[in-house]
């Protein structure tokens, strides 16, 4: 069945007020850049930029450390306090773990060239890198209840509006042997292709809006019957495809979404409004809940941590799979040569759901890697 969109509950955009993050970034960068000058005022030989062996290295090293520190300072302050970032810093947060790989390189080179103060700055950033990443590489212990609980398999796929092989992408999903599929960029044209590939038989139960022809359309296809409250819902600026499915006698809510990209005009402000709506929605669900789709954000944005505070857990991180990126810059030629660079496709769960395992599928013409995650519910 295809459900009709629920009645709109549109609201005015919520104000995002707070100390501008770019000010924090400038302060952090200036403090780092000031360090060698302050040190030389105390000790005239400290980290001189005119080194005979490596004339320009200290200057470049300090500039890179300052740039990294500016992002780190604003990132940390935004987590602790009310700080409001723009699109540039949001993207910087997304790639912060990749950027911080420069820190140990600078630190080692500084030790070799005798610039110990610069080496210390690089080492401090390297420590922060470890604090940010290492906990996400360790899988959490599976609770005892999950070993015998009912399970289901969920596929999450951004099929890409400009996909040149949509039939292959659709066939992969219909043959993935999953119970429920969350499809981002699910235009009416792709959903027709999905049905032609056998989706109408393998996953006949649907939540979708045939009138939504935007790049951010989202649909849920299920081989399990859907509850009567399954629908596409408009919550302010956020569109949620909400499916209720029965898993082992437990009514489980699956919310699929594809919020606005930061690269769009006013995209960051709209995205933050949508995350606010999602944070308001999560506590209204009493049973098992899965929030999945292309969130157009990595787990390193402070707003992502705010989502976790309202009762969600990062299912992929809980499996120790933080370094499984899902998005490539294939659509931004020639940056696609770098391959997948960040994980934008997410699966978040409340405490009634536990992730057991995950596998990645091939992209099939998309700039995103689909994945299948096995979940237990209680």
Brief sketch in words of this structure:
The chain is of the alpha+beta class. It is 37% helix and 22% strand. Helix 2 (57-80) packs parallel to helix 6 and helix 2 runs parallel beside helix 10.
**Into how many domains do the coordinates divide?**
2
Q: What does the main sheet amount to? A: 7 strands, mixed
Total DSSP helices = 11
Name the strands of the widest sheet in spatial order.
Answer: 1-6-7-5-4-17-16
Alpha-carbon Rg, integer? 23 Å
Helix content: 25-40%
CATH class of the largest domain: Alpha Beta
| CATH fold category name of the largest domain | Deoxyribonuclease I, Chain A
Kindly, what is the distance between the CA atoms of the first and last residues, rounded to a whole number of angstroms? Answer: 27 Å
Spell the H/E element sequence.
EEHHEHHHHEHEHEEEEEHEHEHEEEEE
Instruction: Provide the structure class.
Output: alpha+beta
Q: Compute the number of strand runs.
A: 17
* Average pLDDT number: 86
Would you identify the CATH H-level superfamily of the largest domain?
Endonuclease/exonuclease/phosphatase
User: Judging from the principal axes of the Cα atoms, what is the shape?
Assistant: elongated
The CATH architecture of the largest domain would be 4-Layer Sandwich
Low-confidence stretches: 7-12
